[in-house]
Amino acid sequence: MTLQWAAVASFLYAEIGLILILCLPFIPPQRWQKIFTFSLWGKIATYWNKAFLTIIVLLIVLFLDAVREVKKYSISHGLEKSSSTNPSAYEHVQMKLFRAQRNLYISGFSLFLWLVLRRLVTLITQLAKELGIKGVLKIQADSNNDAAKKYMEENEKLKQALEKTGKGDEQMTDAENKKLMENVEKLKTELKKTSDALSKAHNEVTSMKKQSESLSKEYDRLLKEHTQLQEILAKSEKKKDL
């Protein structure tokens, strides 16, 4: 094996090793993303695209050269086989054909695995980003759920206080209570939807964004209702004192 083909074979073994390491199941994508953000990788990344394209061009040239050698020695192998006058020449051509085929396989697999390695690194990086977004959305949804439950409890207390006074504006109180119950039912529905979306967050990150926005709107609406109820309760207490 010549020096150039020995280098290509070593490169092929290195590619196989890197792909196996990247596919290890006990190393999460977030850990790989942290590794890729090291300062050393940052310096390499500036030349990564140029090096990637350069290696592709070299492997394509070697692959085409191997194809040419295989065609060349295949024809010579057929001619030597048909004219069996010189057995040593036939064996020499057969050995050349074997080497050409070996070089063809080495260059072809090296080119294929190089493309696979590039795609694998890209997918790992994208998966790590999606998982990070999922974690942030989960934290936001949990905080919104806690705040919504808190305001639900406070609204229930305010409702009971309004019912005890009995001297407020009954029509306004009934309307506010009806609206409050509707908002509570809506909020319960949104909480249930959010809980279901969180269980499928790894496949539905976009859906979780919409769900979180909807829950934030309901949270703002419920906060307004809470403020209005406090105002009504204050008015009722003032009327009672008078």
What is the approximate shape?
A: rod-shaped
Number of distinct helices: 7
Beta strand % = under 5%
What portion of residues is helical?
A: over 70%
Mean pLDDT: 75
Distance between the termini: 105 Å
Number of β-strand runs: 0
Low-confidence spans: none
Taking Cα atoms only, what radius of gyration do you get, to the nearest Å? 36 Å
Question: What structural class do the secondary elements suggest?
Answer: mainly alpha
Structure description:
By secondary structure, the protein is an all-alpha fold. It has a domain at 3-159. It has helices at 3-22, 29-36, 39-45, 48-82, 87-165, 170-199, 205-241. The longest helix is centred in the middle third of the chain and has 79 residues, at 87-165. The N and C termini lie far apart (105 Å). The mean pLDDT is 75. Plays a role in the export of secreted proteins in the ER. The chain crosses the membrane at residues 7-27, 47-67, 104-121. This is B-cell receptor-associated protein.
Sequence-ordered SSE layout with sheet pairings:
Elements: H1 3-22, H2 29-36, H3 39-45, H4 48-82, H5 87-165, H6 170-199, H7 205-241
Helix pairs in contact: 1-5, 2-5, 4-5, 5-6, 5-7, 6-7
